[in-house]
Amino acid sequence: MDNAGNIIIHQTLHGYNAGHTLIAASLEMSSDAKMAMLPISDMSGNSMIDGFEEYITGYPLIEINCYAIAKTWYAPEMERPGCVWTHTLLIENADLALIENFSELISLFHRRVGLIDTSIYSRPFLLRASTNNFSINRFYQPGLTEVFLKSLISNLYTTDIGSVFIRGIGSSGYDELILSLWFQQWPRLRRNFSFCTGAILPRSFKKKVLDLQVIPLNSHSGILQQSDNPILDSRVIPTYHHEEWVECIFNDLYSPSELRKFLRSYGADVAAQRNQFKLLVEVYLYFKKINNGIADIINYLAEKFPSVKEAGTLKNTILGQGINNNEFSLPTFNETDILFELSTTEACNAFDYDKLKYADRFNLYLGNNTSEFFNLLEKIFDSDLNVKGAKLIETIALDAEINENILGKIAQSKFATVFVSLNPKLAGKQIYWLSNLQSSSETLSTLLKSDKNHVIDWQGIFDTLLLHNFELDLSVFELHNFDISNYILDFWKRNPDNFIQNRYLNVLKKNPKGVVDWIKGNEFIHSNILKTVISILNPNSNEVISGGVQPWMMMMIENSLVSGNDELRIRLSAFCLALGLNINSHDAMILITDSFETVYNAIAEQRLPYSCWENFVRHTKPLPLFKDWDKCKKLVIAVVDYFWKMNYSINDLTRKIQDGKLESRVWRHFNKRY
């Protein structure tokens, strides 16, 4: 098409010049295109038959993306018998939809007379576009019976295999009929359809028999004997059984109707096969008559067009969003019903969910109709999700990770754990827990059962739970043998002034090894944490003993940790002393010497909590009844016994003692005892 909106139609002339050949053309063509045109532009038989001196041929010329429609004339004026002139119009496929008046095309044909100048064939024609003006192609041909025409339509469009042949006394009486049938087709089918109104012998193009051909009455070619090629004789009344789709096409042929607009609107992405004409007309009639629900409509469309590539425009018109379907009596459904069916139909593979913008519409529905969305979701979950629906729910779960608005709504719904199962990372978001306290235990259980544990941000979860003091049933972690000590302690390390509920402290108490391991991995521990840790750990337990004394030595060295806090200094020293008495190592001995005097003084001053003293009971010996109250003496005996049993020099202990009286007491007991 040119800038002025005119359709550019190129042309060629074929005829005799030392053999049948291309004589003139208005465009340069590839050798493949020239080779394809040469045989079909020649005479359609071995010799001319009366009545077939002129005929029209149409065929797709894919080599130049054009449709070729040609008029052939017998040329008896030429010296060589069997010569013809063929004038071919070449219409670009895209422009074929813009031509609705075949009479205009026919008027462009021009027979060469004699050997006059051929330059007129070297310039293209310009034709004004005339879309949707179907009435100009009313068919009128009194020589053919109604039954004959209906039988022709039935045979032509029932199958796409082979050719339909019409026996006739000549070609001229069929030009208008075949052109009317051709123009009735939608553009995609039209540009793939092939015909000849005067096939002296049955014709093929590129080894494929033409779709519709008019042949002489006495033609007996072998191809006519094949069952795939029905033959209609214009002299014989054919057998025809009433078919509604045939009646519809027949009526439209004489009086163009909205059927043609329907075909042009929805035929563009339907297979370019003759039998699809019948199918589209049946669909047109179906929607004219029925008042079915959306599930039936979806199943019908999937049955008729099972491929996702077929009838996408029609499917999208019915199932798309905000499309007015009233023009062809197509049904209209509300968005909720459409989304439900698209999510659950077993026929989902017949529809292009991307073109239907399924995911976008679902997300929009979630954003605009929260309560309705979860009602829809409940209905979908009560049904069976198809692969598209399941994939969409997974996508929503992924999107919610970066969309707090969606995540908050999901967390408040009864389906929170479903989405967490699909994307455990959701549980690492603070907004999830702030919106979902009611089902928090269920969420934790879901996470613990997940096979995606590696992507779960447990620290983020516990940071939120602890920061907001959520009261949770932590027994779920015990049931799954899942240690949460590190998460609690890591949070506490970053938030040492936060109050930690007893339920969490009990978790730490039940897992001394986890606590010790955490202590070993942290160089500095805030006093609040340290005070709690030494109150819940038992220095005589195997878990604490196996952890060694090194981390506790570091705590004793960190004077700043305990300076100004005598209570903590006493408790830490008591813990370290009790721990050291369980271990035979040089480090344990040093730990004892560093803590002994502090503990002794605390006992003497009655400042040592009894809970701390209890850790020494296993290391001390009972004294006579009236001496057993003397905890200081018991402690001295226990420490001196340790040095003797472990074969350490008592000097290592006394050198660290600053109080002379205590030093003398240690030596006195040592000398008395050993």
Mean pLDDT: 90
Strand content: 5-15%
Low-confidence stretches: none
The whole-angstrom Rg is 48 Å
Structural class: alpha+beta
Distance between the termini: 119 Å
**Main beta sheet: strand number and arrangement?**
10 strands, mixed
**Beta strand count:** 12
Shape: rod-shaped
Fraction of residues in helix: 40-55%
Question: What count of domains describes the coordinates?
Answer: 3
Q: Total number of helical segments?
A: 34
In short:
This protein is of the alpha+beta class and 674 residues long. The protein folds into three domains: 228 residues, no CATH class; 108 residues, no CATH class; 137 residues, no CATH class.
What does this molecule look like?
With 674 residues, this protein is α+β, with helices and mostly antiparallel strands. It folds into 3 domains: 6-233, no CATH class; 291-398, no CATH class; 538-674, no CATH class. The strands form 2 sheets. Strands 1, 2, 3, 4, 5, 6, 7, 8, 11 and 12 form a 10-stranded mixed beta sheet that branches. A two-stranded antiparallel sheet has the order 9-10. Strand 1 (6-16) and strand 2 form a beta hairpin. Helix 8 packs across helix 9 (275-289) and helix 20 (458-467) crosses helix 22 (485-494). The protein is rod-shaped. The termini are far apart. The model has no long low-confidence stretch (mean pLDDT 90).
Which terms summarize this structure?
10% strand, rod-shaped, 47% helix, alpha+beta, 12 strands
SSE layout:
Elements: E1 6-16, E2 20-25, H1 31-40, E3 54-61, E4 66-74, E5 84-92, H2 93-96, H3 102-106, E6 125-128, H4 146-158, E7 164-168, H5 175-184, H6 187-190, E8 195-196, E9 204-205, E10 208-209, E11 212-216, E12 231-233, H7 244-254, H8 258-266, H9 275-289, H10 294-304, H11 312-319, H12 335-344, H13 358-368, H14 370-382, H15 387-399, H16 404-411, H17 416-422, H18 430-435, H19 440-449, H20 458-467, H21 475-479, H22 485-494, H23 502-510, H24 512-520, H25 527-536, H26 542-546, H27 550-557, H28 559-562, H29 566-580, H30 586-604, H31 610-613, H32 631-645, H33 650-654, H34 660-673
Parallel strand pairs: 7-11, 7-12, 8-11
Antiparallel strand pairs: 1-2, 1-5, 1-6, 3-4, 3-8, 4-5, 9-10
Helix pairs in contact: 4-7, 4-9, 7-9, 8-9, 12-14, 13-14, 17-19, 20-22, 25-29, 27-30, 29-30, 30-32, 32-34
